[in-house]
């Protein structure tokens, strides 16, 4: 037996109003990939910072092409298998690990569009505050093609390399290599595996707003990523989000 639902004129009016509102949001945020327009709107309504949400979208674009493509979908299955055997693979549009989400206090589904956007936002907000406390400024970093904001650049870098990259960097006796200012005994091994005996002396001359160009390899995907290239891609994604 079919169920009959009776609607009042006010009910119909509310439904039409809701549909028109959603359509307006689609038009308003036309520069955002369709799947992320409503999640962005919902988080804006929760008073989250627009700038960090924009960076988070740029991150998602870099990490998963906004949750699309054969590579994203294929590796998603492999990562579930990896986790089953005790791994801690990255998941969802923001490619975040469950451990990182837990550390951030994120209790939403990071595999959903809105959950991923929120989780990336939380990570960036935390890393940016750490960068400011360490001494990074809103002036430019040494990354050509970055955001123009060193604290933001190093926050984006940390999403790929980890929070340990956010620290003071100093010059060494090799003009081409810089090192963490807090290196033990003021010594630094730039090539611990290939050249373990090549030890540099770390000076006390800090390099303001410096971001190292590290190489990161993702085990499952086998992808090698350079820090500066990562930052540039996120910055380029942000420029495309011109409507927000």
List keywords for this structure.
four-stranded antiparallel beta sheet, 244 residues, alpha+beta, 47% helix, two-stranded antiparallel ribbon
Describe the structure.
This protein is of the alpha+beta class. The protein has one domain. Helices cover 47% and strands 10% of the residues. The chain is built from eight helices and six strands, in the order αααααααββββββα. The strands form two sheets. A four-stranded antiparallel beta sheet has the order 2-1-4-3, with no helix packed on it. β1 and β2 form a beta hairpin. The radius of gyration is 22 Å and the shape is elongated. The protein starts with 8 loop residues before the first helix and ends with a helix. The mean pLDDT is 87.
Helix content: 40-55%
Q: State which percent range the strand residues make up.
A: 5-15%
Count of individual beta strands: 6
Shape, principal axes of CA atoms: elongated
């Amino acid at each position: 037996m079919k169920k009959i639902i009776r609607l009042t004129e006010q009910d119909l009016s509310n439904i039409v109003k809701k549909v028109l509102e959603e359509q307006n949001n689609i038009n308003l945020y036309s520069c955002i990939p369709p799947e992320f327009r409503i999640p962005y709107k919902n988080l804006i309504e929760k008073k989250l910072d627009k700038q960090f949400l924009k960076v988070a979208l740029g991150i998602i674009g870099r990490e998963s092409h906004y949750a699309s493509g054969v590579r994203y979908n294929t590796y998603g299955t492999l990562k579930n298998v990896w986790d089953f055997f005790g791994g801690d693979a990255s998941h969802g549009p923001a490619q975040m690990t469950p451990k990182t989400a837990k550390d951030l206090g994120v209790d939403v589904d990071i595999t959903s569009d809105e959950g991923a956007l929120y989780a990336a936002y939380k990570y960036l907000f935390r890393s940016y505050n750490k960068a400011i406390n360490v001494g990074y400024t809103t002036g430019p970093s040494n990354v050509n093609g970055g955001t123009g904001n060193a604290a933001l650049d190093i926050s984006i870098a940390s999403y790929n390399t980890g929070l340990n990259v956010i620290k003071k960097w100093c010059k060494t006796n090799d003009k081409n290599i810089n090192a963490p200012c807090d290196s033990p005994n003021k010594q630094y091994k730039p090539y611990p595996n290939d050249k373990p005996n090549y030890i540099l002396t770390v000076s006390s001359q800090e390099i303001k707003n410096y971001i190292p160009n590290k190489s990161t390899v993702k085990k499952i995907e086998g992808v090698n990523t350079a820090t500066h290239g990562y930052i540039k891609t996120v910055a380029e994604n942000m420029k495309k989000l011109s409507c927000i």
